[in-house]
From TrEMBL:
It holds the Pfam family AMP-binding. Belongs to the ATP-dependent AMP-binding enzyme family. Keywords: Fatty acid metabolism, Ligase, Lipid metabolism. One of its GO terms (molecular function) is malonyl-CoA synthetase activity. GO terms for biological process: fatty acid biosynthetic process; malonate catabolic process. This is malonate--CoA ligase. Gene3D superfamilies: 3.30.300.30, N-terminal domain of ligase-like (3.40.50.12780).
Length: 605
């Protein structure tokens, strides 16, 4: 949006949560008070409700692991992580984290750069620690060990090319690089180029270590982290860079704790839950929704090494066999991005009838399935619901505040919306004074808001309104029921065509209903007459493509597409250009970088 802050009209109707049917442009829900802690031993350890976990005044996820040690062997032995067909308990993770924390005190762990000795727990004093590891118990132990030592964890992607890895390490001034044995040689070389120390994350032992861990606790091994404050930085997550160079988003112990508490309460995570995790760990979706919040709730998290259509369907069938025999550790929660659900649907359709029936039966048994990180096309939502019986829970978040708005766990999940603000969150639409259609920029105020962009004070300041709301850069509106509708990035998804402001996401959602269209991306490309031209880039469905090619026909023409869409879209929303590709360029979270794509296509014209 190009107008200045003072040129906006602010609509700020703060309403009571009972008045959901009132039209709103600003909405606030209060965070419920936490209840007194309940011991796992007193509850029979069947499950924990979220409020059982908020048992200390320190705003840190570390408190959950510290509390585990004081609650007896049942808590210590409870499975936290499953990976590579091995199980790791909460006690084992804590023990490994303490071991890593001790490594920071050793002088003989330097690789390149200046030798530096840290004096004890909590003594990193905010130093940034890069963590490079596949989804594993070692990754989790690395994050916890960094926090126990007073450091700031910076998750790095194994998929990063060397130049991007070095950029992030330099930008965040990483002084220590943690990695696992399978990547040690590569990461040692990277560390040397950046003058960071290299430390090897020890294997997390998957055998009983409860006694040793509790003894460590009793001997005061956590003494140093008492120096940490709730507002101290704990985590730096880099943005995906879809609107520019990746920025380091700094979260504090307090913002992390606020978010995981918010999610466990909203989605009712408990220790009875078992998550199947196949998301990247350098994005907030994989970190918070599917890892930190489940661990906060004492759930179990099972890592798949990478997304696998056959692997996911198989794991669900193993969890819930058609003979209804009980199995160990059945999956109860799954969260993914829309492209994952598209691939899972394609995998389902390729199955024989018997496997289809057993797969659908198993999927129906899960407690919760969620989608996020990009817009969920309505056809995908409806098709998934017809197969599994699950209406996917869609929500809205960003690196800067993680999750802020969500469809309800219990209640109507409206297709095409992301729901209402989570407890404790305020969200509003800030309209340009010239707009009268209810569309504007979504602005958010939340206890989970980030502290700052790393080393970018001016950018941080410009990202907030005068009254403390974070400006998301996303256009949206609120429907008649108070549900937020995301129309896309103001910089990439809002097109100005002949005086109209059009949502690329709305047009994409419609075009995806066409049986020949498997994937779709809509952009506004420069047009001398209308300002921008609605340009559709499509990937054809494989079967339809083969059929058209066998008939010596083009996969699709612009006339055919518009002829089909004219009854679904207003004339000015119809594409005027059509591009057919074999695939769309997506990042690890399934997003298309439209800004870069527009630049590329502009240069080709």
């Amino acid at each position: 949006m190009t107008a200045t802050l003072k040129s906006f009209n602010y609509f700020s109707y703060i309403i009571n949560s009972r008045l959901h049917n009132s039209p709103i442009l600003s909405y606030r829900r209060r965070l419920p008070r936490s209840q007194p802690p309940t011991s796992c031993l007193n509850s029979g350890f069947r499950f924990f409700r979220p409020n059982h976990l908020f048992c200390t005044q320190s705003g840190s996820l570390m408190e959950v692991f510290k509390a585990v040690l004081s609650e007896g062997s049942n808590a210590c032995d409870r499975i936290a992580i499953k990976a590579d067909e091995k199980s790791y308990s909460y006690g084992q993770l804590t023990s490994s984290a303490l071991t890593i924390s001790k490594l920071f005190c050793r002088e003989d762990t330097t690789n390149g750069g200046e030798s530096k000795k840290y004096e004890g727990f909590g003594s990193l004093k905010g130093a940034r620690v890069g963590i490079v590891a596949k989804p594993s118990a070692e990754f989790v132990a690395g994050v916890l060990g960094t926090w126990f030592s007073g450091g700031v964890a910076v998750p790095l992607a194994l998929s990063y090319p060397e130049a991007e890895l070095l950029y992030v390490m330099s930008n965040s001034d990483i002084s220590v690089l943690l990695s696992t044995e399978d990547h040690s040689e590569t990461m040692k070389a990277i560390a040397a180029k950046s003058d960071a120390r290299f430390l090897l994350i020890p294997h997390v032992v998957n055998s009983t270590t409860e006694t040793v861990t509790r003894n460590q606790f009793q001997e005061g091994s956590f003494e140093g982290d008492g120096k940490l404050l709730a507002d101290d930085p704990a985590l730096i997550v880099y943005t995906s860079g879809t609107t520019g160079k990746p920025k380091g988003v700094v979260h504090t112990h307090k913002s992390i704790n606020s978010q995981v508490r918010m999610l466990t309460e909203a989605w009712e995570y408990t220790s009875a839950d078992h998550f199947l995790h196949c998301l990247p760990l350098h994005h907030v979706h994989g970190l918070f929704n599917a890892l930190f919040a489940p661990l906060y709730a004492r759930s179990s998290v099972e890592f798949l090494p990478k997304f696998s259509v056959s692997g996911i369907w198989r794991r669900w069938r193993e969890s819930y066999p058609v003979n209804d025999n009980k199995t160990d550790n059945p999956i109860t929660v799954f969260t993914g991005v829309p492209t994952m659900y598209t691939r899972l649907i394609q995998g389902y359709e390729a199955m024989d009838q018997e496997t289809k029936e057993s797969s659908a039966f198993a999927a129906q048994k899960l407690r919760l399935m969620m989608s996020g990180s990009s817009a969920l096309p309505r056809p995908v939502m409806h098709q998934w619901e017809s197969i599994t019986g699950h209406r996917l829970l869609e929500r809205y978040g960003m690196t800067e505040f993680v999750m802020a708005i969500s469809n309800p766990l219990r209640g109507e999940r409206k297709a095409g919306t992301v729901g209402k603000p989570l407890p404790g969150v305020e969200a509003k639409i800030v309209q340009d004074k010239n707009d009268a259609d209810g569309v504007g920029e979504i602005c958010v105020k939340s206890p989970s808001l980030f502290k700052e962009y790393w080393n970018l004070p001016e950018v941080t300041k410009e990202s907030f309104t005068e009254d403390g709301y974070f400006k998301t850069g996303d256009a949206g509106r609120v429907d008649e029921d108070g549900y937020f509708v995301i129309l896309g990035r103001t910089s990439a998804d809002i097109m100005k065509v002949g005086g109209y402001k059009l949502s690329a996401l709305e047009i994409e959602s419609t075009l995806l209903e066409h049986p020949t269209v498997a994937e779709c991306c809509v952009l506004g490309l420069p047009d001398k007459d209308y300002g921008e031209a609605v340009t559709a880039i499509i990937v054809a469905e494989a079967g339809a493509k083969r059929k058209r090619e066998d008939e010596s026909k083009p996969v699709m023409t612009l006339e055919e597409l518009c002829g089909w869409a004219k009854d679904k879209l207003a004339p000015y929303k119809l594409p005027t250009r059509l591009i057919i590709w074999e695939s769309l360029p997506r990042n690890a979270m399934g997003k298309v970088n439209k800004k870069e794509l527009k630049k590329s296509l502009d240069h080709q014209e």
